[in-house]
Write a structure and sequence with these properties.
Layout (H helix, E strand, L loop, with lengths): L1 H21 L1 H7 L10 E6 L50 E6 H12 L12 E12 L9 H15 L18 E11 L1 E9 L6 H21 L2 E9 L3 E4 L1 H6 L8 H15 L6 E8 L6 H15 L6 E6 L8 H8 L6 E6 L5 H9 L4
Length: 369
């Protein structure tokens, strides 16, 4: 029975994965699961899945093939959908089915659907992490670590050697001296670590819709990168004419105002990297989202210099996403494209609307850096 249940559960999970992949674009562009995210799992509504169940008819209706009529009679057409004549009922209707997925499962589905390559961390970017491994057996320890097979084997050996074992009544009862427990030792293993730095323009030309697009895309970028690294930190920077580091909630809820000086964000980003994240120990991913409107050509030149000298030499990849705004000029991505067209670390993506988010995610993550 247990094996049958496991097989049925496996088939159901396979169907669920198929339905999620089928509707992934809808989930990504609408961000339906954000309000359903727990610590380790996300609830996803799947109205398309119907759980199989038996439906029983009334006993007075007979069985299959029973009723009036003769062999060869033409069957009348059934009732056309939408032409019902019944009255309002009291029975409940069909509801959405919610399934829970772990972050790792969601990342795996994202990677399969968008054909994302696995990231190969740069070899020198390693930190030692403490790992506990079960490596042996002791005669003492907590009951939660008792090794059942080894304990049973010791008890059986003792009873056989003492002549108390009865093959006709094979009862083996361990005593204190028979008990064996798993033991462990602490070792240090290399662990790849990553930091993601999100920068967002919150000037007057960036509205709520633009920030929502940034929020959706950053969620999926986080989901993928967390599946690739054992340790990941996230830092947030907002900027208008000045830049400041903020928490996640402030990053997505700050009201737009003021002018735009992109160089202020790049300078703060470079300072954070040089102070807290040595490039020899960290995989570094800065992402900047803006509508492409900058204060002046002089500030754009400052941005280009900061990227060339203080940011790009130390990061795995720099991603610039330009969301479309009715007020932004859109010039900045053209300047970056012109100056970094041969730099593989610079990845540019235009995001005119929510439907473009999937393509943008593939732009940023499809290089496997």
């Amino acid at each position: 029975m247990s094996q049958k249940i496991d097989a049925d559960h496996g088939r159901f999970r396979h169907i669920v994965r198929g339905k999620i992949k089928e509707n992934l674009k809808k989930f990504i562009t609408k961000g339906e699961m954000f309000g359903k995210k727990g610590k380790d799992k996300i609830s996803i509504p799947l109205p398309q899945i119907q759980i199989p169940r038996f439906r029983y008819g009334h006993q007075d209706k007979g069985g299959v093939g029973q009723g009036e009529g003769e062999v060869g009679d033409v069957l009348a057409p059934g009732q056309v959908e939408g032409e019902g004549s019944g009255e309002a009922g009291s029975d409940p209707g069909q509801h959405e089915l919610e399934v829970e997925l772990t972050i790792d499962e969601l990342a795996e589905i994202l990677g399969e659907e968008l054909e994302l390559p696995r990231i190969e961390p740069r070899g020198k970017h390693k930190l030692d992490a403490e790992k506990s491994r079960y490596t042996g057996i002791h005669k003492s320890g907590p009951e939660s670590l008792r090794h059942f097979k080894r304990t049973y084997r010791e008890a059986l050996k003792r009873q056989i050697s003492s002549g108390t074992y009865n093959p006709d009544r094979p009862v083996v009862i361990p005593i204190r001296e028979d008990k064996r427990y798993r033991s462990w030792k602490v070792s240090w293993e290399p662990e790849s670590n990553a930091v993601v730095l999100y920068m967002m323009d919150v000037s007057g030309s960036m509205g709520d819709e633009q920030k929502e697009m940034v929020r959706i895309e950053s969620f999926w970028i986080d989901t993928w990168l967390q599946s690739q690294y054992q340790g990941m930190e996230v830092r947030y920077i907002t900027h208008d004419a000045a830049a400041r580091e903020v928490d996640k909630d402030t990053f997505f809820r700050t009201r737009e105002s003021g002018g735009t000086m992109i160089s202020s964000a790049y300078k703060l980003c470079a300072d954070i990297i040089s102070t807290d994240y040595p490039s020899g120990d960290w995989n570094i991913y800065p992402f900047h989202f803006s509508d492409g409107d900058n204060w002046s050509n002089d500030d754009t030149r400052s941005c280009l210099d900061l990227l060339k000298t203080r940011i790009l030499p130390h990061v795995n990849q720099f991603g610039y996403g330009q969301v479309e705004s009715p007020y932004g000029s859109g010039q900045f991505i053209k300047d970056l494209r012109e100056n970094f067209k041969d730099d593989v670390k610079m990845v540019l993506s235009e995001i005119p609307d929510r439907d473009a988010i999937i393509r943008s995610i593939r732009d940023f993550l499809g290089k496997g850096r």
